Amino acid sequence: MVSTVGKISGSHLERLAVVYLRQSSPKQVRENFRSTERQYALAKEAARLGWEAERIVVVDGDLGISGRFSDTQARKGYAQMVSRVCLGEVGAIFGLEVSRLARSNAETQRLLEFCALTDTLVVDTDGVYDLKDFNDRLLLGLKSQMSEAELHMITSRLQGAKRAAAERGELRFPLPVGYVYDDDGRTVIDLDQEVRAAVADVFASFEAKGSAYAVVAALAGRRFPTRAYGGAWAGDIRWGRLNYGRVLQLLANPSYTGAYVFGRFRSRRAVNPDGTIRIKIAELPREQWQVLIRDHHPAYIT
Description:
single chain; alpha/beta; five-stranded mixed beta sheet; two-stranded antiparallel sheet; 10 helices
């Protein structure tokens, strides 16, 4: 336990106590609600340590926003917190695990440097850290590096398990419209006749016309199914107008040939000229796909 004796001064109590909440995905927010409750409870800890209620600020705008696939600017709450620290408005930052306030070790070190320069304390479940103190700064730096290493190992194990399941054709992921999972988890053609007919007519029309634009023209005015991804409607079929982009998606998707594919796309982070980070997704050549199992499920086309 890190000692709190003599670290919290009147100067700190006159400034804000910022309670920063973060979880990486909407699913975590829904399912790990106890973690969210514990983070909100840090406001009570700030009050116990002496901060008045009007000086306790809870920043929860970043709940459900991943730090892995988005840059810091995408997390508005984090950016605002850092800005207030730099302005000298913050006396202490509260978090369950301060080493995870930022996603990368470099980002965490920048935040700790700002805290040291502005005499901002950092508080987690282990105690209170004064970043002007070398020992506290060293301890938080080590915790941040260990957290990053732990995250790397967990990710590696998860990716290995996913790859092994995919090689058996058992890894489940959202299916394209026209397919569903049966009670045994197998991929089968959708039993809804209208859905099946709509998908089959796209391929039949393309075979006859030879052009995606011609398919759109031939099926104009006919409603077409789309599977919703994410949100309250996740997995549901939504009906709308068939457009050129949807036709291309169907024509390029190997699932309709009965093939099971894993690792068809690769994502990587890239830096824009203004310093912001973006995610680039590219389709790999077929010989670089990690898994390709032919005749895995019923096909719409050969």
